[in-house]
Structures are given as structure tokens and as C-alpha cells.
Amino acid sequence: MRPALGWLAAALGYFALARLSSQTEFVREGVPLIVFSQGVAYAAVQLGGPWLATAVAVGAAGEGFSEGLPIGSVLLFAAAAAAAGLAGLAVTRSVRLGPDDERLIDTLVRTGAGLVAGLVAGSFLLAANAVDGRMHDAPTEWMLLVLANVAGIIVVAPFVRAWADHIARGVARAPEWIALIAVSIAASVSVDSGVLGKVGPSAYIMVSIVIWGALRCGRMGMSAVVVIAAVIAAEWTSAGLGPFVVSSLRESAVSLDTFLIVLGLSGLLVVGIEEARRQAQTRHLEAAERHRTLIEQLPLVTYMRSLVDPDSPPLFQSSQTEALLGYPLERWMTEPRFAKGLIHPDDRQINAELNARSLTEDLVQGEYRMIRADGRTVWVLDHMAVVRNAAGEPVAQQGFVVDISERKALEEQLGQAQRLEALGLLAGGIAHDFNNLLTAISGYSGLALDHGGRDNELMRRDLGEVRTATARAAALTRQLLAFGRRQVLERTVVDLNDVVIEAQSLLGRVIGEKVTVATRLDPDLVRVYADVGQLGQVLVNLALNARDAMPRGGTLSIVTSNENDDAVITVSDTGHGMDEQTRARIFEPFFSTKPVGEGTGLGLAMVHGIVQQTGGEISVESAPGGGTAFRIAFPGTLDVPVVENVAPIRASPRGSETVLLVEDEDIVRRLVAMMLEGQGYSVLLADGPREALEVSEPFDLLLTDIVMPSMSGPELAEQVIEHHPGVGVLFTSGYSGSAVADRGALIADLLEKPFTIEELAQKVREALDARVIALT
Fold first, then answer.
1. Cβ pair 675, 681 in contact under 8 A
2. What confidence tens digit (pLDDT) does each residue in 286-318 have?
3. What is the residue-wise DSSP string for 560-591?
4. Helices (H), 550-665
5. Contact in structure between 681 and 658 (CB atoms under 8 Å)
6. What is the pTM of this model?
7. Helix (H), strand (E) at residue 379
8. Which residues contact 48 (CB under 8 A, 6 or more apart)?
């Protein structure tokens, strides 16, 4: 609907202005004073595109028929209107000028396009006059036609564009608009009636009014003044009056059109210049707004403070300051040295040194702490530079401050994790060596019993105490291995609810009657892949820790829940809680808040190790007087528990086969050899992998330690099996089960150190019998 209305408006607009020119005798004796309608043709095609050329052609044809012109002239009139619009459009599109572009260069381009359109239209109209038999002096008439068309385009086209595109009316209000129109009419009448004189230059007083309209009322106001001036001037000139009337009608037309072209161009140029100024101002304001927005949106505080008067408030302080430290910005801007008082007392020297360095270095940065309004400590990173005057003297400091509290917390966590990892490596190494010694102690105690100790009551009792102490020491090394995440886990699909239920009765006996155990178990809890025994140990250690935190009694709560794809168990108490310093060290081995002799300091370290090795995560929340809550999350699994009903292979613990024993600890190697020989086996000895690979005698079983200096046990087993197919393999370990898991296809079984004679004999027999079954 709108395109059709636009087409109709263009056709009627052209026809109406053409009829107005005819009725007011703006064309006399074949001489056009100004062709207003050509401005409609030019503007319509610029605004609506090439298809509106048909509309102005129809309007022009209608005017030709109304004048009674022959069909040839009518067609040329129509062609003149269409060609003027299309020629102007071709020029503006060739430089990719959009219909809304209002820069000064755009105004000049449109002026050039109007000149081209006037040349084309004048040529077609000259041809129309020739067809009608009215052409006498072709060059002069062509020049007059071109001038009249250009004047019409420059006067009318900006007015049409301003109204059609709703171009801004400037800053003037309605009273000023009324005054502008009134002054324009009065001045035009005064000039054109000859009141101000009959000399042409007197008319140029209208230029000042056009400039007024351009500056105050924008393109619309300026073009309205030009149209008013053009209509009134053409009317008086056609009547033979005014400053543009000279010796002949042709000269009068040239004088009038020249004036109107100058007047219109003056207004267009002023509007273009003002538009350029306004756009530059807008860009400046937009840049300032973007800068302000950027400053306000950056996750940092920017500032500038005077060095001439250091006690004065800052020259600038960004609004993020309030979010960072909690104080209203007004206090920074009104209270002298307000920022200095917020620096942590222990870090004021650091800040002072930073300020001093900034006077000699281009850019300095430093970290220090500040105190928030709520009393919390905030770590900040301050980047600072000095502003100097023309003489090179420092006059101000500027920079930005970034909140690095989270980074500091992560660094502390990383440091703690690295310390725990280092302690874990140390603990694992100690446990490895200790287990070798325990193996010797336990083994030789067993041999002593077999070598007559059973017949001596006192010796049997003493050796029993040695073996009991050895078992207790082995339990301690398992705790060390748990902390170091190096114990061997027997993982199965586990329901944490079952673990809690099974441990609940034991917990009641462990923690005493003063502590109430409360559980809340999620019936839809996802299963996890873990070692059941180790999970029970985790619960017991956490319960013991909670009991010690509640000497007068309280409540121990155990809650299970699903979070995302994890199964979470939360163990919390109502005890005395911990401060930040204690909480940061609770997972360190041998760290304890208990009196000397009342704890090993390995309980929570073991919990941490088991959770980490199982693939879970553990965190703790605590505050003095607020109790403690341990949250443990294990990855969930969709696997279901597998029940194996395979009967164990029962075999004699003795044998006569040959065993290749590889052990780098001499005391353990001699002990195990004695144990095996005592069970009837032949033993080949190697104190390391290289010696084992050089053994040429046949053997039935490789019994090797997992961790050795030059080659791991699994790597050795791989090479041995390659040269001795069908050989059985049994690993011993006092250190790492993870190395075994990586070579699962080569593993017959694992014997953990320390072990007894009975355990060794059983494992060796099982490994040999499994080899026989595999071969058959």
C-alpha cells in the first residue's frame, strides 16, 4: 500500500507544481523562470528508486496534455522528468551515496547530481520545444532550460527530502519556527517588491535568513525558507517587478535562477557544515560515553591522585571502588588520605615503597592488602604510573587496582596441594622402606617360631608380641600409604548408603554415648566405584575427629545426596570448629591439635588420600564455635554390583617348583628365600631386574617386587614372559599398586608387604596353580 501511495504522491506532486508554474506564468514567452516540478522528479527517484521515474513521467505527461501540447512534446516532457530523476540517481549511486547521508561531501555530491539532472532535463525540454515549433535560439534556450531545472532541483528537492525523511528540525521550538517563516515571507516580499531597492544584490539579504534557518531549524527550516523565497521571487519577477527584472525576460530568468541557486547552495552548505560539526560532537560524546562505560564496566578500580597536594582527595576515583571495599565513593572524594587508612597495617610499608618506586620508574606494580568496610581482608594488585608536566616534574599518579583475592586463595590452595603431594611422596617412600623392614621383622619372627620358638613358652610369647607390634606398625604404614594415595584399592560398585548403614552400629561404639548419630540417606543415591573397606575407614576417621571436637557431646550428622552426576556424603558435627589456620593444615600428615601422645595426626591425612585415590573430592567448612562439615563427592557410575560365586582354588601351601626371586632389598631377599625353601621350593636369586634377565636356568614362577631402581616389576615380568612363556608371576609391594594396575594383563596376584610365612606360601601356591590351569 505504501509504495502505491508513494507512486501516486510523486505523480501528483510533479503535476501540481508543473500546473502552478503554468498558472502563475513562471513560463512566459517560452522562457522558464524556474522549473519547480523538476525538484520533485529528482527527489522522488532519489527516495523511492528508479520505479518512481514512471510516476513523475506520468505527472509530466498529464501537464503536457493539459497544456494542449502535441503528443511528441508530451512524450518528451515525460522523458525529461524521468531522465532527470534517473540521471541524478545514477550519479549518487555511482559513489554509493545513501538517501540518509547528510555529510558536507554528501551535499556536494547531490549538488553535482542535481546539475547532471538539470542538463539532462534541459536537453529533453529543448527537444520538446523543437517538436512544438517554439525553438529559435537553441544554445541560449538550452542554457536557460538547464539553469531553470537546476534551480528547481536545488530549491525543491531538499524540501521534499526533509519532509519525506522526517529529518530533524534542529533545536528551534514552535515560536522560533513561526518567527522564521514570518520573517522569510516579509523579507522576500520586501526584497522582491523593490522596497529595499531595485538592484539584484539587495536580494542576498535572504542568505542571512537561510543561515538562521539552517543553524536553528535544520535542513527542514532552511529548505522552507528557500522555497518561500523562490516562490515569492518568481511571482514578482513574472509580473515584471523586483530586483531580478532586467532589460529582457531571458536576462531576468538568469538573474533569478542564479540567485536561487546561490541561496539554496548557501543553505545546503551551512547545513552540511553544521551536520559535520554535530556528528563530530556526537562522536566525541559517544567516545567519552564509551570511555566512561568502559571504565565503569572494567573489573578494576581506576584512580588519579595529586602529587602536588598528596593530602587532597583523589582527582578521579572510579565507581568500582565501592564494590571492592564497601565504602561509599563520597568518602574517597571528601576525606583526605582516606585510602591510606584502608591499607592493611602490615602492608603499609609495601605501599609506601611502591609509591616511591613510581617516581623513578615508568610503570610499577605491587600486591598488598586492604581492609573492607565489613572487616574482611582484600588482596589487590596495584598498577601505578606518574603523570609529569611539561617540565618533567611529577604532578600526579594514575593507575588501576585489581582484586586478586581469589587468585591468592587459589595460590594458597595450590601451595597446600603441593605441600601435601610432597608429603605424600615422602610418606609413600617411608612406608615402602618401612614395609621392607617390617617384612623382615615379621618373617624372621615366624622363622624363629618354626626354628624352636614354639617349644619355648617365653620365646613364643615374646615373638608373638613382636608380630603383634609388627601388625600395628603395618597398619600405620597403610595410613601413610593412604595419605600418599599409594595403597592398593579393591574397587567394586558400592552404594554409599549401604556403607553408612553398615558403619552406623560401629560408630555408636566408637564415638560413645554422648554423641548422637543422625543420618539422612537419599534412596535414589547413585552408586560409586570404590573400595568398601576404605570407605568405612573414612567414615570411622571422620567420626573420631567429630567426637574429639564434641567433648561434652553433640550430634554427628551423615547425609547422602546426588549432585549432578556425583554421589555426595556430608559428615558434620556440632563441635567447637576450627579457625582458618587449623583448617588449612588438617590434611597434613602428623598435624594434630591434640596433646602429645594422644594422636598420630594421620587420620584426616588418610581420609584425604583415600578420597583422592578413589577419584573423589573432599572439602571442609568450619568456623570457631560453628562446628565442622566434611563434604566428599565421588563420581557416580551406572554399573551394577557383580556377585561372583567362583569357589576359591584350594591347594597345598607347599611345593617343589622353582621360583625366581627378584628383590633389591638384601634383608628381604634372604628372608623370602628362606621362607620359600622352607616350603619345599627351589629358589633362584636376583638382586635386580638386570640380573633376573640373565638367569638361564628354567623356573616356574617369577616373584618380584614392583618398585625397583632400574626397571619396574611389571616391565620385568613382560620381558621374562617373552623369553619364558608360561611362567607364573607374583608381585610383592610395599609401595604402589597403581603401577600394577597399568599392566593388569600380566598380573597373576599381589602380595602386600609385610607378609607372614603362611601368606607367602598361600600366594605362591595360588600363583603356581593358576599357571597350571592357564596352560591346560
1. no
2. 666 676 666 666 778 888 888 888 878 888 888
3. EEEETTEEEEEEEE-S----HHHHTTTTSTT-
4. 580-583, 603-613
5. yes
6. 0.45
7. strand 377-388
8. 3, 6, 7, 10
| Side chain identity, residue 206 | M
Cis amide leading into 754 (omega within 30) = yes
Please give the CATH number for the structural domain made up of 492-637.
Answer: 3.30.565.10
Measured CA to CA, the distance from residue 247 to residue 251 in angstroms comes to 7
What does the DSSP 8-state code read for residue 552?
Answer: T
Which DSSP letter does residue 655 get? -
C-alpha cell, 181 = 517563516
Q: Where are the alpha helices (DSSP H) in 71-205?
A: 71-94, 104-132, 138-164, 174-192
Q: Which of 562, 561, 547, 560 is nearest to 628 (CA)?
A: 547
Q: How far apart are CA 354 and CA 359, in angstroms?
A: 9
User: Rounded to whole angstroms, how far apart are CA atoms 143 and 128?
Assistant: 15
3-state secondary structure of 336: coil
Burial classification of residue 442, based on how many CB atoms lie within 10 Å of its CB (0-12 exposed, 13-18 middle, 19 or more buried):
buried
CATH of domain 658-775: 3.40.50.2300
Q: Give the phi and the psi of residue 473 in degrees, each rounded to 5.
A: -65, -35
- The string of pLDDT tens digits covering residues 208-267 is 999 998 888 888 888 899 999 988 988 888 888 878 888 788 888 888 888 899 898 888
Determine which helix (DSSP H) or strand (DSSP E) holds 751, and give its type and residue range.
Answer: strand 750-752
Does 3.30.450.20 match the CATH number of domain 301-403?
yes
- Return the axis-axis angle of helices 37-48 and 2-23, rounded to nearest 10°: 170
Q: Nearest to residue 632, comparing CAs of 550, 687, 561?
A: 561
Residue 123 Rama label (left phi>0; alpha psi -120 to 50; beta): alpha
- Cβ(728)–Cβ(768) below 8 Å: yes
First CA to last CA distance, the chain: 94
Distance CA 302, CA 397 (A): 11
Distance CA 29, CA 113 (A): 29
**C-alpha–C-alpha distance, residues 158 and 224, integer Å:** 9
Backbone angles phi, psi at 296, to 5 degrees: -75, -25
CA 741 to chain centre: 40
H or E element in which residue 528 lies = strand 527-530
* Size of the chain, expressed as the number of residues it contains: 776
β 316-317/301-306 pair status: antiparallel
Question: Does 1-167 carry CATH code 1.10.1760?
Answer: yes
Domain segments of the chain as ranges: 1-167, 169-292, 301-403, 415-483, 492-637, 658-775
Pairing of strands 27-28, 701-705: unpaired
Residue 775's pLDDT is: 59
Residue the block writes with cell 594422644: 598
What count of other Cβ atoms lies within 10 Å of the Cβ of residue 558? 24
